[in-house]
């Protein structure tokens, strides 16, 4: 192995992905000074240290050795193919199809190489904003990526799509920025060899009643789900907004069986340095995931059939910290929901595929009050107008008020289910939606945070008047609404 070329290319990869040495040091445990000396040739890394670096970049030694050569090959192949297709297209009067043809050829060229292109992680990945898409003045610049709308992020995107947002999260720094202000890349570059599939995940046809259990945000490294007595009920599909996705797979994923989880990864707080790698592993291992993927797939809903009716679940992110976290056709990212037209397109397209659509927006102030901010209300209104039938949001540490928009029930936030940030005493929810051939009923489990975990084993009936007032608007949109104020016989252990 050519050690000098290997280290030179690793430096090029780091620079292309805009990673600092401190980021690499924290992820691998190799001191910054040693990494710096190794890059300039003053130190020679051990085999073990090289293995850690290769694991961090999700590349083999051969991938690293041919890094720049491979990129030149892709660029040259794409340029030649593009020129040929340009001549053909205009020669045959097919100029209106040129963009699609070029993109198809570009993907074919890129798929022949296992190395990720570091330039793909730059803002927007080269996709352009389509003309004519609405862009409200109060929204951050950036592309859309939703079906029929603008795609990707433009080259003029700011480094943060949160900038200029009315959601001022006091004390909540952006993911990927350390205390010293040093910017870190948020996730690895997409693996061009990872098959995209058709994007629409299909649940098994079910007979009888199915229960969709919507949890509040849960850290991926949590010890387990908060305990409810029927967590093991095979009728339940646990829908969990996951945060801080890492390659340290938690034990709780084995508790009830992978087919009974739907992991919602569509949130700005999902990013670690290994988020993309773990997303790839989860999908390969057969877990149901939504909210993260390539642009062609990430806006497609998870679909399950219940008593002959198709039920869809769509994840949208109205808050994204960095431009390179937006899904494009070449990059794993989030389903951006900023622009009015992209929101309407994403929801209406999903609604056309199903009979009933749940939409799970990620937006809001993490440490906010029970009152949703204007941006949450605007997003919920657009979703309801576009065809969403039930809206359950996530991000806020505490529960927020519920309301009904055009007959559509809206939970702006259920609050956290497992979070070290949640103070003891917060009253948060877990929501069960019982479905057969109709929406049978909605059951709200009221719990109290203690030690960062939602507990359901204490009597909370003293809060009945407050909770019923908060949830009263839902009575106009839900035929049967039940509130469970406590569950007896629950131990402190996880299921």
Question: How would you briefly describe this protein structure?
Answer:
With 495 residues, this protein is an alpha/beta fold.
First-residue to last-residue Cα separation: 50 Å
Please bin the fraction of helical residues: 25-40%
Q: What number is the mean pLDDT? A: 76
What Rg is obtained from the alpha carbons, in whole angstroms? 23 Å
Order of helices and strands: HHHHHHHEEEEEHEHEEHEHEEEEEEHE
Number of strands: 16
CATH topology of the largest domain: Purple Acid Phosphatase, chain A, domain 2
Question: Could you walk me through the main structural features you see in this protein, from its secondary elements to its overall organization?
Answer:
The protein contains twelve helices and 16 strands. The protein has 495 residues and is an alpha/beta fold. α6 packs antiparallel against α7 and α10 (340-351) crosses α11 (374-386). The chain has helices spanning 3-16, 21-28, 32-40, 47-57, 61-65, 67-91, 98-110, 275-284, 295-298, 340-351, 374-386, 464-471; strands at 201-202, 210-214, 218-219, 236-243, 261-264, 288-290, 302-306, 309-317, 356-362, 390-392, 402-405, 408-411, 427-435, 439-450, 453-455, 481-484. The protein is elongated.
């Amino acid at each position: 192995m050519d050690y000098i070329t290997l280290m030179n290319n690793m430096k090029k990869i780091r620079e292309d992905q805009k990673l600092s040495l401190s980021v690499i040091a924290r992820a691998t445990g190799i001191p910054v000074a040693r990494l710096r000396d190794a890059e300039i040739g003053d130190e020679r890394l051990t085999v073990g240290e090289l293995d850690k670096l290769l694991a961090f970049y999700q590349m083999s030694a051969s991938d690293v050795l041919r890094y720049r050569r491979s990129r030149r090959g892709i660029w040259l192949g794409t340029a030649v193919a593009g020129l040929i297709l340009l001549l053909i297209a205009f020669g045959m009067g097919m100029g209106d199809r040129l963009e699609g043809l070029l993109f198809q050829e570009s993907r074919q060229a890129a798929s022949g190489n296992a190395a990720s292109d570091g330039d793909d992680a730059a803002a927007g990945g080269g996709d352009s904003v389509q003309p004519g898409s609405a862009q409200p003045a109060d929204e951050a610049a950036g592309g859309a990526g939703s079906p029929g709308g603008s795609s990707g992020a433009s080259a003029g995107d700011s480094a943060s799509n949160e900038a200029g947002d009315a959601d001022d999260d006091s004390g909540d720094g952006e993911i990927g920025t350390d205390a010293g202000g040093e910017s870190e890349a948020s996730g690895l570059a997409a693996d061009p060899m990872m098959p995209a599939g058709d994007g629409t995940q299909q649940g098994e046809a079910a007979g009888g009643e199915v229960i969709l259990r919507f949890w509040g945000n849960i850290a991926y490294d949590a010890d387990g789900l908060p305990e409810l007595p029927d967590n093991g009920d095979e009728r339940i599909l646990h829908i969990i907004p996951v945060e801080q996705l890492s390659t340290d797979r938690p034990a709780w994923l084995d508790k009830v069986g992978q087919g009974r989880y739907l992991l919602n990864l569509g949130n700005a707080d999902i990013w670690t340095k290994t988020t993309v790698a773990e997303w790839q592993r989860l999908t390969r291992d057969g877990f149901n995931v939504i909210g993260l993927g390539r642009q062609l797939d990430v806006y497609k809903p998870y679909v399950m059939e219940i008593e002959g009716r198709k039920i869809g679940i769509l994840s949208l992110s109205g808050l994204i910290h960095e431009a390179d976290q937006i899904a494009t056709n070449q990059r794993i990212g989030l389903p951006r929901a900023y622009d009015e037209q992209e929101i309407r397109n994403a929801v209406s397209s999903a609604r056309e595929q199903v009979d009933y659509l749940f939409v799970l927006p990620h937006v809001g102030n993490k440490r906010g009050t029970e009152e949703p901010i204007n941006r949450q209300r605007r997003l919920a209104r657009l979703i309801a107008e576009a065809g969403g039938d039930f809206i359950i949001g996530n991000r806020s540490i505490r529960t927020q008020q519920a309301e009904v928009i055009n007959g559509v029930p809206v939970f702006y936030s259920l609050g956290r289910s497992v979070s070290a940030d949640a103070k003891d005493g917060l009253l948060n929810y877990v929501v069960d939606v019982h479905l057969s051939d109709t929406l049978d009923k909605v059951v709200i489990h009221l719990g109290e945070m203690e030690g960062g975990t939602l507990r359901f084993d204490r009597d909370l009936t003293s809060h009945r008047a407050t909770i019923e007032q908060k949830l009263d608007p839902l009575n106009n949109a839900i035929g049967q609404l039940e509130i469970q104020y406590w569950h007896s016989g629950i131990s402190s252990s996880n299921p």
